[in-house]
Amino acid sequence: MFYGSIPALVTPFSGKCVDEDSLRGFLEWQIAEGTNGLVPCGTTGESATLSRDEHRHIVATTVEVANGRVPVIAGCGSYSTDAAIEMVRAAADVGADAALVVVPYYNKPSQAGLAAHFTAVADASPLPIVVYNVPSRTVADISVETLAQIAKHPRIVSIKDATGNLARVTAQRLACGEDFIQLSGNDDMALGFNAMGGVGCISVTANVAPRLCSEFQAATRERRWDDALRLQDQLYPLHAALFSDSSPGPTKYALTRVRPGFLAELRLPLTEPSDASKRAVDAALEHAGLL
Known about the structure:
With 291 residues, this protein is α/β, with parallel strands linked by helices. The chain has helices at 20-32, 52-66, 81-93, 111-124, 135-138, 144-150, 167-176, 190-195, 210-221, 225-241, 249-258, 275-287; strands spanning 4-7, 13-14, 17-18, 73-75, 98-102, 129-133, 156-161, 181-184, 200-203. Helix 7 (167-176) links the parallel strand 7 and strand 8 (181-184). Helix 1 runs parallel beside helix 2, helix 3 packs parallel to helix 4 and helix 10 (225-241) packs antiparallel against helix 12. The protein is globular. The protein starts with a strand and ends with a helix.
């Protein structure tokens, strides 16, 4: 269903508005470069700053451009269960293939609350659900046991795991079954993640290096581990540099280097990355052979 290199897409802005022409060109480039799926309106897409109308329009545009060539997994998370349900239904209305639903942030629900939240969203959803577990941002962490409980729901089919704990891959494989789709949320750990049973990565780096990331994922899928390790080494400095300042600032800067004219505007409270971050990005792009 979902596998390989799946960028968590940046959102191009111009004059505080979503720039649709830039978005369309960016999506076409991603598909042409071998990307295996698209995630609009995730964290890297500055989803917290998007209005409901913008969210719907970005997902609809992504679906239109993809035109069935790759799946579209729409970011639909909220700390409000009702709001998450509304976003999932809106994504379904415009043709998304699945919804990426983050563990509720800020209000720190218990494990029982997390189970109830995801069950309610899945019950109301016309779409398959990818659970997004990123404790560094949400504070809450869905446990292996709770994930196994909700994975019994027919519409909860996958996890984007950004815990940074590789042992979770095996634990979740044993608890949720081999058919439960595990996608890494950390580019730098994707090699180990896939070796332990993962099948892909919802990636930040794939915004900037879609072909290399797709080739890396294909190498792991085909068990060409020497090729995968070579690509891991080629991409690793870029994985690190894209988080050398608040994301997605370094990623948008990197895109201006590999796609001249790309719009690097960020929405407050995010600001332009530091000069040190830009230097790190430039060096990593050179190391990857992208400059």
